[in-house]
Amino acid sequence: MSSDSKNCYLTTHADHNEDCAYSSGLKLSKDVFDATMVQGTEFSYECLNVVKGYRNFYSVDCESSQDIYFSKNLVGCNDCIGCVNLRHKSYYIFNEPYSKEEYTKKFTEYHFGSRKNVEVFRKKAEDFWSHYPSKYYHGSHNVNVSGDYIYESKNALYSYEMLGVEDCKYCQFLSTKPSRDCYDYTEWGQGAELIYEAVVVGDSVNNVRFAYTVYSSHNIEYSAHSHGSHDLFGCIGFKQGEYCILNKQYSKEEYRSLHDKIIKQMSALPYTDKNGRVYEYGEFFPLDLIPFGYNETAEEFFPMGKEKALLQGYHWKEKDQQEYRQSSYKVPDDINDVQDDILEALLACEKCGRNYRLIQMELNFYRKAGIPIPSKCYDCRHYERVRYRSPLFASGKLCSKCGKNIMSNIPEHITTILYCEECYQKEII
Ligand SMILES: [Zn+2]
Ligand SMILES: [Zn+2]
After folding, report:
1. How far is ligand 2, taken at its centre, from the CA of residue 386, in Å?
2. What is the mean pLDDT of residues 14-41?
3. Superkingdom of this entry's organism (predicted)?
4. Which of 6, 38, 99, 257 is buried most, with the most CB atoms less than 10 Å from its CB?
């Protein structure tokens, strides 16, 4: 889902953006490419979990910083390369201070217009970051929360990527505030209340259950692709509908009576799928109705592989050989060597072989930013970026400083040095 945006290309779970591409979880941003979980940011590339950034490149977990490269967990910094855990610093390289003149000289020497140089710095920076502690979860301004990437929330438990949420559990991607009193709900928010078992529901929604892509509506059950409606049951594609069942209009009284009758029947005669799963009233739609392959959606967060997914009744999208044609075009290492004819070329990902193309807006951006053209396809770039994103689930760990028990989603490949809130506040802030 993507809404209220202008001139954006291949952006998902993204709203209120302009001139952005190849991103997910992107909000209120402009001129941002290859980003995941980024808010209020401009002119940035290859960022993960960045807020209010300007000219942030190849960086993660940064806030209110500008002109930063290969950096992690910076707040209020500018002109930093390869830094980690800094606050309000300028002209730092690998956490060491430089004069403005020295910094500028070094920056020119490093020449980040070359893909080889970028790859060398990326590896060097990731190794450098791994020697510094991380807080046990990403988030701030919270009371009683568990999960990861949680901000300005209260009583948000076992949840992930939350902003301005209250009294919610088992929710993900509610990154447009506010949301309250929700369970088992994935994506959106923006004035969501009493939502249960729903996907992509938001913008003034109340009492929505077992539904997807519903907005500005209330009292909705088992419905999809509807807005500006209330009291719908089993409906699809409605604008300003009321008291409808299976897209048929009833009087308020008829609706109530039929609604109660159907609910009773759904429990008395439930649908059973070919794997023997029973769907009574109270369950989300059956798996048979999923229009996407498991590997196009859930595999990213709940990996199980093709064999298991098929056994469990999910679809699996096979490779389309048309998307893997040979390419003779060699993407130049240096942005300065790239000619306009690249826009006509069919490129092949150096990792998986899948074809991709460049669009004009993207080429203009790389040239203006002085960064290299990617040699990998959108998907490979995405998966490389999200290596630095926590998975959905937490496990029990110990604070590396005081030994206190903590629950953390952050995996060991990101860092083995995790601090509890108190130790982190003492040492980092
Ligand atoms: Zn690829
Ligand atoms: Zn501690």
Report:
1. 27
2. 95
3. Bacteria
4. 38
